[in-house]
Amino acid sequence: MREVAARTGVSAGALYQWFDGKDEIYAELFTDRINRGIMQFEAMPVDLPFDDILGSMLRRVRTTWTTLGRWQLDYSEIARGREPGPARSTLSEAYRHILKVGSIKLQAAAEQEGRRFPDDLDTMHMIWGMAAGIAQRAEVLQMQTEQVDQMMERAVRSLRAGLTESAGTRP
């Protein structure tokens, strides 16, 4: 709390007037980041290629990881609805919403390309977790931005190949 107070220019005691503790602050920060991502995804043109949409989503997760660090992994559990509380409930709703928006965008792009993308939030959660893992690994290894970008590009190609199938091969 002292670090947050120092960065915001208020006393730690003053922070407790607005927040119950650091978990609530991080939940609010993470929710804000997710809501900005939702607006970004909703504003994407409908004719963007699948790879561009997926790449944008992976970059959003990487930016969130860079901003909030280890809290992203902690909050993925909270965001899946495993802990109660008003801030966590709001975070959980925002997280599920960004996964749904992402899924809709990827499904539409895949369909335009004559492919099919799975309609389930677990797939989107897996994509989110994989991108967070890449960001975490890049931070630990102190990788250069271009190395991280190359890793994300490989992830996009791999995910595209593994998560989409030709529309003609539907069961």
Q: How are the elements arranged and paired?
A:
Blueprint lengths: L1 H7 L3 H7 L3 H21 L7 H19 L2 H12 L3 H27 L2 E2 L4 H20 L4 H19 L1 E2 L5
Antiparallel strand pairs: 1-2
Structure notes:
- The model has no long low-confidence stretch (mean pLDDT 78).
- The chain starts with a helix and ends in a 5-residue tail after the last strand.
- The chain has a two-stranded antiparallel sheet with strand order 1-2.
- The longest helix is centred in the middle third of the chain and has 27 residues.
- The protein has 171 residues and is mainly alpha-helical.
- α4 packs across α7 and α5 packs across α6.
- It has one domain: Tetracycline Repressor, domain 2 (Orthogonal Bundle), CATH 1.10.357.
- 77% of the residues lie in helices and 2% in strands.
- It is globular and about 55 Å long.
- Please mark out the parts with pLDDT under 50 across 5 or more consecutive residues, or reply none: none
Describe the sheet with the most strands: 2 strands, antiparallel
Using only C-alpha atoms, the radius of gyration works out to 18 Å
CATH fold node name:
Tetracycline Repressor, domain 2
CATH architecture: Orthogonal Bundle
Assigned CATH class: Mainly Alpha
